[in-house]
């Protein structure tokens, strides 16, 4: 009998993306009778325009589009993403086959001298590629100079070490996955600095009609991560946000209850809208909760705030 065909995993070539792809491969290979796994490295729009601020890059899904289209062409069988990068509207013919258990969803501050955010000097230069992080940093430290920062995690840390910044803000999960969590100066509180939608979760996509592949991926799905990210992604879809707008959200599951909190913040930190709600921890309730929180925010002016922020993107290079 011939061996089963190899499972081709499409991934970006950054250190963090490769860690995530290898993690998914290891989880697949734990299963009895699992196929051989091959990695296919792909370059995305976000990689090709690594020196351009993300808000200047046209469209959305900067780090996922090319991988998902390779999936549709049949070039790869599995697409591994940081779920926060994945559009809330998947390409027709694709499904989110697995959401892996969530790592730390918080943002982390790494400073040159190890100081937390409150102890950074007046006018401290803080680097981040995220308009969401810039907005909440401006709210907490209006004196800080918020500077654009692109590149993979090791590149960002190197720019901090060489003195381009006094501190940088990155996802805690990325640092932990690369064994760099010892560099963290402070984990930023999720209430004051709400993370990106689905931050800390690895998302795995496959073709909807590829039953053989879906069989191997279904075992990777974490029910709590699925519920939480379903609520968060529904919220994002109804607010019509993306990485270009300062929106943060976090859903958690505890004792059979799903809680969702979300915040929209003006780029200069002067306006701030927050909402919170809870529902039974069930799939249809997660979707309804995301819709309800989105309606709450929109009813209090979040739509107008988001539109105004899309027209007000001013960044500086160090």
Features of this protein?
single chain, 318 residues, alpha/beta, D-Maltodextrin-Binding Protein, domain 2, Double Stranded RNA Binding Domain, 3 domains, five-stranded mixed beta sheet, globular, disordered C terminus
What this model shows, in words?
This protein has 318 residues and is of the alpha/beta class. It folds into 3 domains: 1-101 and 201-221, 3-Layer(aba) Sandwich (D-Maltodextrin-Binding Protein, domain 2), CATH 3.40.190; 107-194, 3-Layer(aba) Sandwich (D-Maltodextrin-Binding Protein, domain 2), CATH 3.40.190.10; 223-318, Porphobilinogen deaminase, C-terminal domain (Double Stranded RNA Binding Domain, 2-Layer Sandwich). Helices cover 33% and strands 23% of the residues. The chain contains 10 helices and 13 strands. The strands form 3 sheets. A 5-stranded mixed β-sheet has the order 2-1-3-10-4, sandwiched between helices. It has a 5-stranded mixed β-sheet with strand order 7-6-8-5-9, sandwiched between helices. Helix 1 (15-29) links the parallel strand 1 (7-11) and strand 2. Helix 8 packs parallel to helix 9 (283-299). The longest helix is centred in the C-terminal third of the chain and has 17 residues, at 223-239.
């Amino acid at each position: 009998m011939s061996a089963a065909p190899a499972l081709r995993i499409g991934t970006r070539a950054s250190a963090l993306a490769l860690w995530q792809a290898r993690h998914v491969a290891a989880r697949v290979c734990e299963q009895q009778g699992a196929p051989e796994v091959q990695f296919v490295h792909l370059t995305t729009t976000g990689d090709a325009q690594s020196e351009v601020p993300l808000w200047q890059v046209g469209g959305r899904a900067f780090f996922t589009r090319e991988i998902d289209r390779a999936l549709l062409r049949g070039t790869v069988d599995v697409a591994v993403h940081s779920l926060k990068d994945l559009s809330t509207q998947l390409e027709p013919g694709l499904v989110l086959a697995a959401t892996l258990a969530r790592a730390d969803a918080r943002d982390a501050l790494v400073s040159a001298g190890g100081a937390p955010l409150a102890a950074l000097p007046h006018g401290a230069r803080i680097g981040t590629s995220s308009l969401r992080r810039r907005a909440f940093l401006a709210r907490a430290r209006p004196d800080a100079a918020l500077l654009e920062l692109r590149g993979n995690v090791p590149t960002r840390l190197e720019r901090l070490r060489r003195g381009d910044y006094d501190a940088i803000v990155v996802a805690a999960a990325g640092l932990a996955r690369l064994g760099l969590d010892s560099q963290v100066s402070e984990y930023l509180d999720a209430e004051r600095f709400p993370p990106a939608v689905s931050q800390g979760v690895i998302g795995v996509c496959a073709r909807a009609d590829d039953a053989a592949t879906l069989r191997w991926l279904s075992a990777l799905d974490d029910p709590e991560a699925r519920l939480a990210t379903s609520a968060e992604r529904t919220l994002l879809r109804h607010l019509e946000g993306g990485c270009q707008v300062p929106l943060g959200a976090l859903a958690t599951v505890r004792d059979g209850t799903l809680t969702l909190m979300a915040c929209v913040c003006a780029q200069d930190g002067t306006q701030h809208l927050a909402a919170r709600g809870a529902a039974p921890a069930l799939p249809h309730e997660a979707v309804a909760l995301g819709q309800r929180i989105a309606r709450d925010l929109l009813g209090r002016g979040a739509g107008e705030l988001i539109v105004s922020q899309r027209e007000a993107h001013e960044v500086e290079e160090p």
